[in-house]
Amino acid sequence: MAAKSDGAAVSVDDDNTPRSASEPGNPAARPRCTAAGGKPYTPLDCCWVLCALLVFFSDGATDLWLAADYYLRGDYWWFGLTLVFVVVPSAVVQVLSFRWFVYDYTELSGGDGAASGSGSGSGAAAAGGAVTEGDGTVSTKDSDQRGGSVAAENAANATPAYACSSPPPATPGRGGSPPRCCTVCMWVFQSVLHVLQLGQVWRYIHALYLGARSRWHSDGPHRHFHWRLMFESADITMLRLLEAFLKSAPQLVLQLSIMIHGNAVLPLQGLSASASLVSLAWMIASYQKVLRDSRDDKLPMSYKAMIAQMLWHFFTIGARTVAFALFASVFQLYFGIFIVSHWCVMTFWIIQGETDFCMSKWEEIIYNMVVGIIYIFCWFNVKEGPSRFRMTVYYSVTLAENVALTAAWYTYRGPHTSDSYALVVVCLVACSFALGTFFMLVYYCWLHPDGPVLGSQWGACVDEGVVGAGGVSGVIDTCLTPSQGSQTDMVITSPPRTLPRTKDTGEPVPGERDKDRDRDSCLPVFQVRPSPSSSPALLHRTSSSLRAQEGPVIRIDLPRKRYPAWDAHFIDRRLRKTILLLETTSSVSPRIQYRSSMMGSKEVLEYETTV
Main location per UniProt (predicted)? Predict the structure, then answer.
């Protein structure tokens, strides 16, 4: 481990080889590999987006319908609270969505026009945050390196400029600055959409459009539309997850409290609470799927696994919110104190874990505070590594809190609540939590993308390898493209989580163990080694020519964020524009390379400790 410039610790292992910008995942880590351009968009993906739209409309419509019903009944206090939990979170999300649109569309329209005008340095200058070097690579500097170094600060404003001997060819049909009338219409259209609180609806429809275009087009446009689809999907899930825990979760607790306090259940109340609960469970599962699809070091999540995860969160959040509503119906003041205290403890626990999601220190603190709100209701993994212990601690605390809250309500409930009714409610909380735990075990034991928790699995696309007299001489990916499979310096990333240990039958030679340890610490786990007959000069020329044919490389001067964090090119919108611009101006899809891929282990150690 080496100290980062901000004092955090990072691994010095080089496990981030250049990835294609058009590939959402590493072929070696996919159950089924496809050609360059990523996983194809399927009708099942389209149905999932349509169901997400249905969940979005049902959640908002039932809340507004219930608020209108409260108003007609003369319950103005409940009407005001219900409406506040609909309007305020939605407005916050719309402001964030419109801010992203302003940033993306302003630079995108300028970048496209520049790229088509001359096809040279002016075209790339609109992307921001990357510099193209003479060998066809694009390097970026840290936008905010937590340590506040001057070099990183200056590089944040760097603009890309092609320095190649010849400009990259522009793809026909994708260049050209849009007419001014179209630009004005787009601004008016997006402004009206966001004022009407329909920004997420437009993003869902746009994702459907991009998915259809990526499926119907040929290789070049397919890569471009697929990459844009991944960016749009990431934005939707981030916005909807934020809205779910700012709107649906408080709304669910409020409506359950009203039902328990009034000792009666209106049909609209039950409909609104059910829609809010489904929205919460749906968005957590969708977020995990899109996050896994965006990373090349993680296996994708199947739809069966998503359903299991939805049921897991549906029942655990349901038990949690019912316990909250029971306690709040009797102890309103103490319930507020409990919520604030729990949020403070959870936020401190998250900050203490040193998460690495955002690009700046203050954004990270705000993110941790938002995750603290999520931790009031359910588990949300925010740190790399085995999560069994942390999950066990969280659910143990949650179970103890649910028992205490429900017991307090049962003891101090009002006289109008009968014993039989109270016993049914207590059993409902217990059974719901038990069902949620059951589906959690089903997910981790049978449906987890990385395999059962009690066993280890190898990547499905990695062959068994060639075993010779000297042992394993290489591991060949059966799904590699011809150019990738012929690279002699390629390292296959995403090894299995656990490697089988081998034992020597003979006694080790004195001094050889230390040499083997030093050698193993510098070599990757899997490496396709050249044949002994190949000369170094020939191999260098071959690998250089192959790299030149692969197109530009976007070198990001940042250590790659570990799962479950998003990659920097998903949360830093300048890097997004760089990728999309290079997709437009280059006939070959660019590759992405993070800092640890650009140097050896010793160089990383020296760099990290001296910056």
Answer: membrane
